[in-house]
Specification:
DNA-binding, homodimer, transcription (chains A, B), transcription regulation (chains A, B), three-stranded antiparallel beta sheet, WH_DNA-bd_sf (chains A, B), DNA-binding (chains A, B), Arc Repressor Mutant, subunit A
Chain lengths: 126, 126
DNA sequence: CGGGATCCATCGTGATACTG
DNA sequence: CAGTATCACGATGGATCCCG
């Protein structure tokens, strides 16, 4: 029973289940994209804005803060003027990229099937 | 540059990027849990309710509909009374479990680190 | 430049009641 | 049993202005 039920409401009613906890964070619209953008190395705030393309300052700021809080991203402030802030992945963040890549690869590979399924669903499934 | 930027706003401004498209679906609060619950085999509606434990009927219904539409789940209705409806994974759904397991395993393994990072963040990081 | 604060629109989710 | 309909609310995300 403990086989695959890591996703149950709790892992046995202790903590709120590791997977849910993690997914709640990286399950938002931007976290994965930011992590991906940082894979290439250190980036500054506006650099990330340009890389992501269509994220607002607020969401980038918020996402980075959450990722920093969870230990995925490191934030480095240089006491200069004008201010300079750099973001890069921690070892934890890097390690997360591994399973993430698996997910991305799957999505890239099977996106066609999903689209076909949607079409088929509408045309005549029911 | 096309190396890892599969997550950019689009894969080159064509479709809304496969990864975002997939993530928007399975990134909600329940999809992964439902898929996991179905790994064991065919299940009925109320069976899933019990397995998930704390999902509402509405959300289970909605989640299943989306998963069915995207081709992850197959819905089989038996014209009986009282009604009987069974859900199980399609091949696509099964194939998705592979990368998902990777993510689950990571979450299970590194959850401690994330918790520690959060604590450390609050106590004195800034 | 790198955000924080505020306001607002929308979405996701839950609770409840009702239906076939 | 297996949902659907309705209501309500908090979270999510965008836009804008402001500040050091």
């Amino acid at each position: 029973m403990a086989k695959t039920n890591l996703l149950a409401a709790d892992g046995g009613f202790e903590q709120p289940c590791p997977i849910r906890d993690v997914l709640d964070r990286i399950g938002d619209q931007w976290s994965l994209l930011v992590l991906d953008a940082l894979e290439g190395g250190t980036k500054r705030f506006n650099e990330l804005m340009r890389t992501l393309g269509d994220i607002s300052k607020q969401m980038l700021s918020l996402t980075l803060k959450r990722l920093e809080e969870d230990g995925f991203v490191r934030r480095t402030v240089y006491p200069e003027v004008p201010p300079r802030v750099e973001y890069d992945l921690t070892p934890l963040g890097h390690s997360f990229l591994v399973p993430m890549k698996g997910l991305v690869a799957w999505a890239d590979e099977h996106h066609r099937h999903v689209c076909e399924a949607r079409t088929h669903y509408r045309t005549g499934a029911r």
